[in-house]
Design goal:
By secondary structure, the chain is α/β, with parallel strands linked by helices. The protein folds into two domains: 157 residues, no CATH class; 152 residues, 3-Layer(aba) Sandwich (Rossmann fold). α5 links the parallel β10 and β11. α1 packs antiparallel against α4, α5 crosses α10 and α6 runs parallel beside α7.
């Protein structure tokens, strides 16, 4: 179950702006990044909305080609009928003019939206914490919404483009303390909602982070209520097997896309043995990233946090690549 107060992330902001412009009588183009090559700074799946009179929400290039795209759309110089695929190539001379370090290329899908009501439905689903696959038929322009669970964020087919939308990605940390604070800060920088769970009053942070949710639920309860979702990652940092194992038993059977546990190689082997004796399957235990994170030779808390967040990022990006 997902908290109904979920922040919905950048996609929802773009769609909400488009809905407002449509309600005010503007034409609106919705732009999705399909492919990138070279130095393009925004990944596939990134969204932007362009109002026919004014306004730009989101970004497809970090600001490099938005001006040209807006000019083409408002000047009615984009290929029609919509949806249409647009190839933006930037050679070295143009890259220098735009302030890019080198040339790049991207392929965009441009749709023209004609009514706010479909966006109302989509935004309501996202606000309820549900994942929705928005499918665009490239032959007819028809848009359909479908329930989603484990699909990639972006799937490109010969006749359709499907983007999964929903609540913002979530990071649940089990165990409070200095390391959790560093991981939380890095997670927030990357756009995650972050929750820290620790029922131990002794470990409560005297200076809690303003944009992080703190809970004293038991770890297994926190996983069930906050992180049983394919856009959630769970990391145990408590240094207490009673707390960590309680969360891991629940998390490894959940829909979370990443489950990691802090600890040495020896500690991790002992943890896997305990989980097997408790009754978790080999497939469930194989999901566990332990020691958590990428091996970067980290020793200091901030470096360990960086390695953990890098590992989560690698797992998330593997999901995103699956449908391309």
């Amino acid at each position: 179950m997902v908290d109904s107060a979920n922040l919905q992330g950048a996609d929802a902001e773009v769609l909400a702006a488009a809905r407002t412009w449509l309600a005010n009588g503007q034409r609106v183009a919705l732009v999705t990044v399909l492919h990138t090559w070279g130095s393009s700074p925004r990944p596939p799946g990134s969204l932007a909305a362009i109002g026919s009179d004014d306004g730009l929400a989101g970004s497809v290039s970090g600001g490099c080609v938005e001006e040209a795209l807006i000019d083409r759309y408002r000047g009615d110089r984009l290929a029609r009928p919509f949806p249409t695929r647009v190839d933006f190539g930037v050679d070295r001379e143009e890259a220098a003019r735009l302030g890019l370090p080198c040339g790049g290329r991207m392929e965009l899908l441009v749709e023209e939206l004609d009514a706010p009501q479909p966006l109302d439905v989509l935004l309501d689903e996202m606000a309820a914490g549900r994942l929705v696959a928005r499918r665009v038929c490239l032959r007819t322009g028809e848009v359909s919404l479908h329930p989603s669970r484990d699909e990639p964020e972006l799937a490109i087919r010969a006749d359709s483009v499907t983007k999964v939308l929903g609540p913002a990605w979530h990071l649940l940390l089990i165990g409070d303390g200095q390391l959790a604070r560093y991981v939380a800060q890095l997670g927030r920088m990357l756009g995650y909602r972050v929750s820290i769970c620790d029922p131990r009053a002794l470990f409560a942070d005297p200076h809690p982070l303003d944009d992080v949710r703190y809970t004293s639920m038991m770890p297994d309860e926190a996983v069930r209520d906050l992180a049983d979702h394919p856009r959630s990652a769970v990391v145990t940092l408590a240094h207490d097997p009673k707390q960590d194992d309680m969360a891991l038993i629940e998390a490894l059977a959940s829909h979370a896309f990443y489950v990691g546990a802090l600890g040495s190689m020896r500690t991790s082997r002992a943890r896997r043995d305990r989980l097997a004796r408790i009754g978790l399957t080999s497939a469930q235990i194989d999901r566990l990233d332990a020691p958590a994170g990428l091996p970067i030779g980290s020793k200091r808390p901030a470096e360990i946090a960086l390695s953990i967040v890098a590992g989560i990022t690698a797992a998330r990006n593997r999901i995103g690549e699956a449908g391309r």
